[in-house]
Amino acid sequence: xxxLPVCETLLLEPYxxxxxxxxxxxxxxxxxxxEMVSELRAVLAAVRDERAxxxxxxxxxxxxxxxxxxxxxxxxxxxxxxxxxxxLNRAFGALLxxxxxxxxxxxxxxxxxxLGGGFGLACVSDIAMADHQAQFGxxxxxxxxxxxxxxxxxxxRIGLTQARRLALTAARFDGKQALRMGLVHFVEQDPQAxxxxxxxxxxxxxCCAPGANAATKQLLLASAQQPSAQLxxxxxxxxxxxxxxxxxxxxxxxxxxxxxPGWAS
Length: 265
What we know:
Layout: E1 10-15, E2 18-23, H1 34-47, E3 55-60, H2 71-78, H3 82-101, E4 105-110, E5 113-115, H4 117-123, E6 127-131, E7 135-137, H5 151-158, H6 160-169, E8 172-173, H7 175-180, E9 186-188, H8 191-205, H9 210-223, H10 229-244, H11 246-256
Parallel strand pairs: 2-3, 3-4, 4-6, 5-7, 6-9
Antiparallel strand pairs: 1-2, 7-8
Helix pairs in contact: 1-3, 2-3, 3-10, 5-6
């Protein structure tokens, strides 16, 4: 088996053909830092041609999946100008593309916060299961920002009508609502039930031939309209303009200061 990279923000546990990947920044509810994005991409690259790894299970430490992008990374990028924001944003889009195209079956186990970037990861998984109390949402517009790299994958997952409602209101919703709109496939009442459901799903996945699964996944994705690299490049540019504009500055500052932004006061 390929050597897995050493990671600071991820816990990696290969077991019986399954690689369990735990997002491990509990102090920030596993917010997606640039380091985490880079490490996830490195793990995907390491196992891409490894047929002994047949499924990837992504979960989060300490009862949360992922609370979105790391505001500290955006603060650091501010000193480097708009191009740094664009590059930071586009790197996450590349992660979503690579996760969606992974030849393995990608399963997300969703608890606690499933926001922004975490929401995007859920949308590119093959199978998603959630705790009934998990909190989903696209908070970007409440911060004066855009769900730039996430939006095309959200539309692909749940349709334009629902995506418009969620993105333009920054509304929060729970696991049961996520099931009704087709974002997740299973909702369970507690961590034990989630673990049992995961075992059941993995048993079915491991009944399937890995090469056939990889080819079938490629076929299915090719059958649906794909978010294009050109669109994601444009979205990264719009994001950098938003985050350096008046609304983005006010929204992210209000978040750090734990107050409402000017437009919501």
